[in-house]
């Protein structure tokens, strides 16, 4: 990779340009040179790469499948909205060299960097950025430039003292280990050292018993604390001598606090920790809206990338809108708009590859069918294709010799493991289908426009006979039915059916009949979708829908913001499997709970959440900020939950310090329904004349918070990690 490789960069069937790609000596950036012009420029940074996919795993490379074999093709996927980079190497060996090499380079980022034993590659990257004359040394002027780049506005005298202390050779420059010494002095954590000394008798080490005291008194670890203390020493103490004596140094103490065990997120809840044998309607389910779109709803691009990104994010309910296409082939796109189109078969193939990569739990597919007659038959043929791809995982009872399924009285998540459920329109009820043809209950359209909805009903009635019976037979467990009120649903609906409601309709039901809505969602699935007016792919707040127990709250995954932060925050637990068990009082069909009246919740009284925001570490600069600009950071803590719990508080802002700001402020909140609360930590750059700029955030469910002294590892606007940026806090929860 460092020698360089000539490859084809492809954007379409006709756009294939040769580029000379080369990994730079810093092992952090890739440059390319145009073969025609000879111009060299930066292609991308390793820190921007999310993953690398081998073979024909993009629309462009699939379209070139006959021209180039999969062994020579690979796709580089970037974080955020940046488009993928499709490359074709000269040989399979060269392709593997880049695929394996890139994977090795991005792997270390999976563990957050600490402020003491920080990655040498990361330090070297900063060094080389500031070393303007590339002589491998750094004079004081270059150090000052480095501090600006690292978001540090340090007093010049203090910076000079640190520089001179690190310059052991007294050459007036820093090199190699001298720069590492300078960096360690720069990142010294006074607040952590003070805490360490509070529990250390000699101020130099924590004995095993002293560490046990800290874990019990501050971290509120109750069981197996001695075993835990031994594990932490073995895992995080850098000195072999100290490990042999079962003691923890100040460096090891900081390593622990910056580790997953020292995170605010309970590490036990990051794995599968909830009961997975409940009926499907007892879970919140990670769900996307118009999954195929990666931009807006009118002219945006449709792409299988939308499905891949959603599935890798833990999404379990996807949408596939199928329409008549050219050459007798069904296509997927947002009907009656200018969005681009993708073949239905490519969507099916993508689901086959990615449906169960993140977890083994059932995946739901909402299939909106606008293809009729022969095209409907073509689509129904793709459902067995999906079965073949996934080893019979699609739940269907079409085809000769297939046993007729029993009408399910409840949908157990455990029983549906490794299954794909098709959610869509069906000719007749399931029990009618098993006994013979019956009358279809027309489904409402996923559109807020009443006239269009009425037109949809008329067209459905007219085209009922033309919809392929085989496709209808694939819908077993999740038949779409119209919602005509809670009493009607209780009398005529089945647990195997599902109703779709617009966000406006759902809000009205929550406002007018909150308790009835919660009861309804205790036994039947409800899907919520965004207003048709959200043409920019913006999102509504999912929290108010979860408050009423709605399971399938569909969001536009391509749009970053608070709403997707809440979605990622809720579903980051339970092994990121896309299912979160609802609280007991929302699974009871006779529950008295009403989200607008917290006193109806059964259980203990409200809790107080006290958050001491102590400090921040190496906060990133605001995107597109001027050279030399330093942020003025402050922290806002938001509570998202039932209306009575909605709240936010802020710290003061710290002028010109994004490197190691200190706040030492305590924010207090009272939570009446903590089981539904999400806590969002937001860092912004204060601006007295214009809107504050976003710096970083982290969101998690209240149930996943670990008390004590904890680090919060911040995420970017699109939910990706930005190491080593973090907050240091102290958490107390009292009833």
Automatic annotation (TrEMBL):
Limits of the EF-hand domain: 118-153, 154-189
Compartmental location: Cytoplasm; Endoplasmic reticulum; Membrane; Nucleus
Highest taxon above the source species: Eukaryota
GO molecular function: calcium ion binding; phosphatidylinositol-4,5-bisphosphate phospholipase C activity
GO biological process: intracellular signal transduction; lipid catabolic process
Reactions listed under catalytic activity: a 1,2-diacyl-sn-glycero-3-phospho-(1D-myo-inositol-4,5-bisphosphate) + H2O = 1D-myo-inositol 1,4,5-trisphosphate + a 1,2-diacyl-sn-glycerol + H(+); a 1,2-diacyl-sn-glycero-3-phospho-(1D-myo-inositol) + H2O = 1D-myo-inositol 1-phosphate + a 1,2-diacyl-sn-glycerol + H(+)
Acidic residues composition-biased segments: 433-454
Protein name: Phosphoinositide phospholipase C
Gene name linked to the record: Plcd4
């Amino acid at each position: 990779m460092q020698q360089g490789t000539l490859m084809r960069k492809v954007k379409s069937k006709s756009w294939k340009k040769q580029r000379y790609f080369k990994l730079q000596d810093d092992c952090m950036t890739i440059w390319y040179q145009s073969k025609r012009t000879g111009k060299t420029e930066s292609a991308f940074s390793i820190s921007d790469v999310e993953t690398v996919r081998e073979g024909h795993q993009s629309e462009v490379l699939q379209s070139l499948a006959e021209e180039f074999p999969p062994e020579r093709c690979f796709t580089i996927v970037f974080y955020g909205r940046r488009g993928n980079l499709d490359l074709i190497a000269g040989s399979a060996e060269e392709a593997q060299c880049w695929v394996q090499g890139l994977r090795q380079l991005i792997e270390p980022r999976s563990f957050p960097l600490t402020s003491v034993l920080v990655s040498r590659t990361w330090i070297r990257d900063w060094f080389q950025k500031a070393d303007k004359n590339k002589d491998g040394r750094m004079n004081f002027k270059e150090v000052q430039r480095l501090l600006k780049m690292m978001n540090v506005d340090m007093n010049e005298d203090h910076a000079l003292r640190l520089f001179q202390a690190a310059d052991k050779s007294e050459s007036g420059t820093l090199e190699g280990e001298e720069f590492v010494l300078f960096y360690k002095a720069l990142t010294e954590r006074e607040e952590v050292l003070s805490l360490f000394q509070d529990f250390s008798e000699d101020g130099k080490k924590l004995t095993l018993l002293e560490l046990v005291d800290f874990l019990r008194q501050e971290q509120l670890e109750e069981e197996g604390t001695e075993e835990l203390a031994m594990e932490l020493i073995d895992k995080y103490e850098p000195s072999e001598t100290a490990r042999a004596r079962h003691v923890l140094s100040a460096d090891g103490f900081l390593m622990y606090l910056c580790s997953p065990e020292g995170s605010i997120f309970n590490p036990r809840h990051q794995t599968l920790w909830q009961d997975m044998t409940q009926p499907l309607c007892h879970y919140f389910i990670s769900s996307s809206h118009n999954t195929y779109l990666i931009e807006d709803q009118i002219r945006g691009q449709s792409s299988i990338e939308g499905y891949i990104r959603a599935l890798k994010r833990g999404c379990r309910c996807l949408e596939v809108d199928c329409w008549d296409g050219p050459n007798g082939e069904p296509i997927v796109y947002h009907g009656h708009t200018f969005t681009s189109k993708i073949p239905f078969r490519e969507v099916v193939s993508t689901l086959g590859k990615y449906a169960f990569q993140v977890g083994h739990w059932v995946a739901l597919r909402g299939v909106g069918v606008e293809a009729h007659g022969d095209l409907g038959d073509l689509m129904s043929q793709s459902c067995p294709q999906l079965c073949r791809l996934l080893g019979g995982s699609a739940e269907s009872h079409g085809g000769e010799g297939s046993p007729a399924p029993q009408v399910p009285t409840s949908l157990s998540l455990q029983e549906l493991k490794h299954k794909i459920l098709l959610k869509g329109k069906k000719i007749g009820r399931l029990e009618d289908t098993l006994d013979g043809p019956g009358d279809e209950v027309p489904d409402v359209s996923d559109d807020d426009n009443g006239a269009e909805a009425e037109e949809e009903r008329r067209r459905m009635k007219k085209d009922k006979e033309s919809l392929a019976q085989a496709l209808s037979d694939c819908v077993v467990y999740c038949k779409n039915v119209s919602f005509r009120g809670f009493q009607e649903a209780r009398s005529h609906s089945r647990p195997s059916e599902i109703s779709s409601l617009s966000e406006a309709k759902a809000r009205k039901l929550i406002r007018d009949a909150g308790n009835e809505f919660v009861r309804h969602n205790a036994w039947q699935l409800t899907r919520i979708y965004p207003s048709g007016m959200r043409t920019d792919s913006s999102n509504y707040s999912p929290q108010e829908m979860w408050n009423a127990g709605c399971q399938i709250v569909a969001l536009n995954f391509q749009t970053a913001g608070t709403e997707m932060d809440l979605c990622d925050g809720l579903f980051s637990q339970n092994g990121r499997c896309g299912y979160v068990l609802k609280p007991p009082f929302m699974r009871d069909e006779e529950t008295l709970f009403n989200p607008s009246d917290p006193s109806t919740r059964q259980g203990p009284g409200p809790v107080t959440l006290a958050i001491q925001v102590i400090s921040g570490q190496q906060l990133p600069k605001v995107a597109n900020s001027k050279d030399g600009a330093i942020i003025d950071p402050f922290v806002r803590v938001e509570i998202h939950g039932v209306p009575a719990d909605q709240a936010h508080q802020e710290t003061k802002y710290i002028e010109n310090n994004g490197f190691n700001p200190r706040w030492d402020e305590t924010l207090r909140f009272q939570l009446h329904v903590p089981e539904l609360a999400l806590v969002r930590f937001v860092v912004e750059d204060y601006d007295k004349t214009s809107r504050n700029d976003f710096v970083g955030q982290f969101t998690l469910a209240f149930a996943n918070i670990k008390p004590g002294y904890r680090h919060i590892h911040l995420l970017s606007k699109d939910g990706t990690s930005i190491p080593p940026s973090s907050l240091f806090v102290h958490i107390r929860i009292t009833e």
